[in-house]
Design a protein that fits this description.
The complex is a heterotrimer of chains A (399), B (305) and C (295).
Chain A lengths: L1 H27 L4 E7 L6 H20 L3 E3 L2 E3 L1 E7 L7 H11 L4 E2 L5 H14 L3 E2 L16 E2 L6 H14 L4 E7 L2 H16 L3 E8 L7 H10 L3 E5 L4 H11 L6 E4 L6 H7 L6 E4 L12 H12 L7 H19 L3 H10 L1 E4 L2 E6 L2 E2 L6 E5 L2 E6 L17
Parallel strand pairs in A: 1-4, 1-5, 6-7, 8-9, 8-10, 10-11, 11-12
Antiparallel strand pairs in A: 2-3, 12-16, 13-14, 14-15, 16-17
Chain B lengths: L1 H19 L2 H27 L7 H14 L5 H23 L4 H25 L5 E2 L6 H23 L2 H11 L1 H6 L4 H27 L1 E2 L1 H4 L2 H14 L5 H17 L4 H18 L3 H5 L15
Antiparallel strand pairs in B: 1-2
Chain C lengths: L6 H28 L6 H19 L3 H29 L1 H5 L1 H24 L12 E4 L2 E4 H23 L1 H11 L1 H6 L4 H23 L11 H14 L4 H21 L5 H15 L12
Antiparallel strand pairs in C: 1-2
The chains are: A alpha/beta (399), B mainly alpha (305), C mainly alpha (295).
């Protein structure tokens, strides 16, 4: 009698002692979630990809502060596996194959840039590995089979062209000058813009293209100045966007409506031109000014606090949004690929960019928008339903 | 005959390789074969004649463009050779005027030509309203690997055979003493152009294959000066006088890449730069030269056996 | 087409040409005296630009002052390059056999090292700042004050260079080295010392160009390469080693870019530039002013 109750008591005691021990051991042995990606760390795209890297880093820090990534209820630390694609998308298939088969990552993040996303798509298909894309924008994205890749961006060229023309009509613009850089994104926008302008009856006074590497735009700008259009649409990126701004300012080429396709959403661009950028419009679909999006301003503040510079309103915002989507999906269903696929494809996610939901590969919730620099801020000015501020006229140059 | 056996063995190993390894190592193998094919072709021209081409990416790029244009229009087994022929044709057209230029001018000229063709293609694509081309539904990695294996073996065989042929002697005479060669009746212009065209065929086909790997064509990426520089680097490191050189150079560089690039990309690039400097200064005959992997009695002038 | 006659285009050509002239001068000097193809030239320009950028951003120092620091730094790099790299090259018989090709590769290695060192140190992020960006007007022609300053300084430096090579002993020694390398030793010119100075001077000029250019362009560790290309196009056009030729080549290149584009279309800008480059190499490789002479 006594021995049995002793034995039972000893068992209970051991169990009572062992349980917390096992629990601690279990927590400490929580395997990290391996997250892999390639990004341009060297080469000509490294400067531009930087704002995406910084968004990834911010997210990583926040996950750490939260005690780990929530994987279907269990919090686990994260571990990154990062490779340099050397600004060469030809290297992407090899790198992502390595990440999947050799490093055996649990999750994948996207590289920077449209062609880079295209290069990953094939690999994702082959391994049925879902990944949320970010910094890619092309109508050709729609040709990709859905199921393993999604694009939260709404800055797709044909829709940009459409919305831009609507904005021009709303502003009473009757004539424009279009100056296009011969690179895929800007060219795609132009391909849709020209017919849309013609259809709306807006006169195209100047339609010029220029090769990458152009250092001087005096001839084109002089032509534009002479024709005095209501709107000047510079389908450019840095560094030629910088040349354009400098020379447009120098030659006093101005118009009430001005757009620079890519550039004004980046921190260094705004530092360089300061007040002269006031009133310039650009492509984007995010702004911390949008109070409906509760997470937008905190993201902006956290980014500035961590990196000492403003986020890029296009690339940084998109990168972070793609991470939020992934994070929420993983929190819901864990790391199983099929479940993740289902969740990402079907759910609506609450992100710094408002609600995001995918229809096929595209984002069906976020409208295509246009931003404008007003004072110190970059505001959403189109479409009117989403705008944080109305469109304002571009004032003449400050000198 | 030992050499023939080596080729057969390489072919057999290469054909078996895809079945033996996973996708990642297959990709690495593909890269290795690509560099071998490119470097061997380069050595055929620049190693043998001394006319250093810094624009070989132009043939690679043109091959890639032809493939992008013919994609879905012609079957692969036609498109790839056509890409090679297009590159050869370009070399023929460029050969006579360009090879009249000597020394450093030729080097800079090849670079300029590559850039020129690049921007012409950019303009053509812009004119066609095309902004990058998606090439979906391409062949599997195994197929690409096998095609590249054939290209690499052919390129190596070509360099090996040329090196030991009368054609090769003529080429090397041009390298050592071009004026003297002309005096004794060698029609240097024709020979140089022939080497130029030969050195373009394989890179054209290589470009056609690799663009399918990345499934996207963009002129600024395929006509990349860095590609040209890497080919030259590989040949210098490995040795630019004979077939084993590019093999060693490619092996070395791919090995170095695998070791370093993953963990320290900028450091990798810095080491690459330092190696390049080191090899040119201290080991200009390359690894092959250092390992004495050259045919007997055929040392370039000025170097002891 | 009356745009072609506008003073604005002419001014644009002058300004662009002055930038090219400054960038190419150092390269011309090094190639002319030593037949070395310094493809790392653009990286030195980039380093000069970073010096000016950080001086302005951290300490609010005007680039017109920090350019001296930039020049000092790149001159130091020039000294080190000569001492450790070039001497080694010149000593090796094998390397000298194909000096142009080999020097190209060595300097290419150097350029990769420089690009990635800077990238490690400062991240690859693009940098830019605004200084002297007020617009200055003459009648109906306008130009940014920063570009005007670049124009003025490069013309001044070019003039100084021409005088230097004409009248100073060191300058004459350098010319002797270009024109008659072997004979120069016979008349007692210390080739090693003069060559060293050439490197120091050539790199210093690149640093100067970079510091000035940083006012108007964005910089990143990889922004040097286009300047190397431009410098080569300029010195090929004008003739390798020919200083006057370098000036003419620079303005010619600028003219092609500005007027060629006005005549045809901006879409053809790079095709025109490289087309002329190839044409000169094919038809007159010694350059339009020909020959290995500094003046």
């Amino acid at each position: 009698m006594k021995s049995r109750s002793n034995w039972t008591r000893r068992l209970a005691l051991t169990a009572a002692l062992a349980l917390p021990l096992a629990w601690t051991a279990g927590v400490q042995a929580a395997e990290p979630v391996k997250i892999g990606y390639a990004i341009a760390q060297t080469g000509p795209f490294a400067p531009i990809a930087d704002s995406q890297i910084k968004a990834y880093q911010l997210w990583a820090k926040q996950i750490e502060e939260q005690g780990g990534l929530d994987v279907a209820g269990e919090k686990r630390p994260i571990e990154f596996v990062v490779y340099d694609d050397q600004s060469d998308f030809g290297k992407i298939p090899g790198i992502y194959e390595k990440l999947i088969t050799d490093d055996e990552v649990d999750l994948l993040l996207a590289p920077w840039g449209t062609p880079f996303h295209f290069a990953v798509a094939g690999v994702l298909e082959r391994y049925s590995f879902p990944m949320v894309g970010n910094t890619a924008a092309s109508v050709q994205l729609r040709d990709l089979a859905p199921g393993n890749i999604w694009f939260p961006t709404s800055a797709i060229p044909d829709r940009i062209a459409e919305e831009l023309v609507k904005l021009l009509e709303a502003e009473g613009v009757t004539s424009v000058a279009v100056n296009t850089l011969q690179l895929p994104f800007s060219q795609e926008v132009k391909t849709f813009l020209i017919p849309a302008l013609q259809k709306a009856g807006i006169e195209i006074l100047v339609d010029e293209e220029y090769a990458p590497g152009t250092r001087d735009m005096t001839a084109t700008l002089t032509m534009i100045k002479r024709t005095q259009p209501d709107g000047i649409l510079a389908l450019a990126y840095p560094p030629d966007a910088i040349t354009y701004m400098n020379q447009a300012r120098e030659l006093d080429v101005t118009a009430p409506v001005q757009l620079i396709l890519i550039g004004p959403s980046a921190s260094f661009f705004r530092d360089m031109f300061g007040a002269d950028l006031d009133g310039v419009m650009t492509v984007g679909h995010w702004s911390p000014q949008k109070s409906d999006w509760a997470k937008a301003k905190p993201f902006y503040d956290a980014y500035v606090a961590m990196h000492g510079e403003r986020p890029d309103y296009l690339d940084s915002a998109l990168a972070y949004t793609s991470l939020e989507i992934l994070q929420q999906a993983v929190a819901k269903v864990g790391l199983d690929k099929d479940k993740l696929r289902e969740t990402i494809a079907g759910e609506t996610f609450d992100t710094i960019n408002g609600p995001v939901r995918f229809d096929g590969v595209e984002n069906a919730e976020t409208p295509t928008m246009l931003l404008q620099i007003q004072g110190d801020n970059l505001e959403i000015v189109w479409p009117p339903g989403e705008a944080t501020q109305p469109v304002k006229e571009k004032a003449p140059w400050s000198q | 005959m030992r050499v023939a056996a080596a080729f057969v063995a390489a072919l057999a190993l290469g054909l078996a390789y895809p079945a033996l390894v996973g996708d990642y190592l297959l990709g690495v193998g593909l890269s290795f074969l690509m560099w071998v094919a490119l470097a061997q072709s380069w050595v055929l021209l620049s190693g043998m004649t001394g006319y250093i081409s810094l624009g070989h990416a132009v043939f690679y790029g043109l091959g890639a463009y032809v493939m992008a244009l013919l994609w879905m229009v012609l079957p692969l087994w036609l498109a790839i050779p056509i890409a090679g022929l297009a590159a050869g044709l370009l070399a023929l057209v460029l050969g006579y005027p360009c090879l009249r230029v000597r020394g450093p001018y030729f080097v800079i000229l090849t670079f300029g030509v590559a850039e020129f063709v690049k921007y012409v293609v950019v303009a053509i694509e812009a004119g066609l309203g095309k902004s990058g081309r998606l090439l979906f539904g391409g062949p599997s990695l195994e197929t690409l690997f096998t095609i590249m294996l054939v290209l690499a073996l052919v390129a190596t065989a070509a360099t090996y055979l040329v090196r030991r042929s009368r054609f090769g002697v003529a080429l090397r005479t041009i390298r050592e003493e071009e004026t003297a060669a002309e005096t004794i009746g060698i029609s240097t212009a024709q020979i140089k152009v022939a080497a130029f065209v030969l050195s373009a065929l394989i890179p054209g086909m290589v470009g056609a294959v690799m663009v399918l790997r990345s499934t996207y064509f963009e002129p600024l990426q395929v006509f990349n000066p860095f590609l040209s520089f890497t080919i030259v680097t590989m040949a210098i490191i490995g040795g630019s006088d004979d077939a084993p050189g590019p093999l060693l150079g490619a092996l070395f560089l791919v090995g170095l890449t695998e070791l370093l690039w993953a963990n320290a990309p900028q450091l990798y690039m810095i080491i690459l730069g330092a190696l390049l400097i080191g090899f040119v200064l201290f080991l200009p005959e390359g690894l092959a030269g250092r390992l004495r992997l050259r045919p007997k009695g055929q040392y370039p002038r000025g170097q002891d056996p | 087409m009356d745009i072609l006659l506008s003073g604005q285009l002419l001014l644009a050509t002058l300004v662009l040409g002055s930038v090219y002239a400054l960038v190419a001068m150092g390269l011309n000097l090094i190639y002319g005296t030593m037949r070395l193809l310094n493809v790392a030239h653009g990286e030195l320009v980039m380093i000069g630009a970073y010096v000016a950028f950080w001086a302005f951003t951290w300490a609010n120092i005007s680039p017109l002052i920090s350019l001296f620091a930039a020049m000092a730094l790149t001159a130091g790099l020039g000294w080190a390059t000569y001492r450790f790299l070039v001497r080694g090259m010149l000593a090796s018989g094998q390397v000298m056999q194909r000096i142009e090709a080999n020097s190209l590769l060595i300097f290419f290695g150097l350029s990769i090292i420089l690009q990635n060192l800077v990238s490690l140190a400062f991240t690859a992020n693009e940098r830019a700042y605004a200084y002297l960006d007020q617009v200055v007007r003459f009648g109906d022609i306008s130009i940014g004050a920063d570009r005007l300053v670049i124009l003025a300084i490069s013309l001044a430096v070019s003039l100084a260079a021409i005088l230097f090579f004409r009248y100073s002993m060191t300058g004459l020694a350098m010319r002797a080295l270009i024109e008659q390398r072997e004979a120069a030793a016979l008349v007692g010119i210390e080739r090693d010392r003069v060559s060293q100075l050439v490197f120091v001077l050539g790199f210093a000029l690149a640093g100067l160009a970079g510091a000035l250019i940083s006012m108007t362009e964005q910089i990143s560790p990889f922004s040097g390469f286009p300047f190397t290309i431009a410098a080569f196009v300029v010195i090929i056009l004008g003739g390798l080693g020919n200083l006057y030729g370098g000036l003419i080549g620079a303005f010619l290149l600028a003219a092609i870019e500005v007027y060629g584009v006005a005549l045809t279309s901006s879409a053809y800008r790079s095709i025109l530039v490289y087309g002329v480059f190839i044409a000169v190499l094919l038809w007159r490789p010694q350059g339009l002013l020909g020959g290995k002479r500094l003046s």
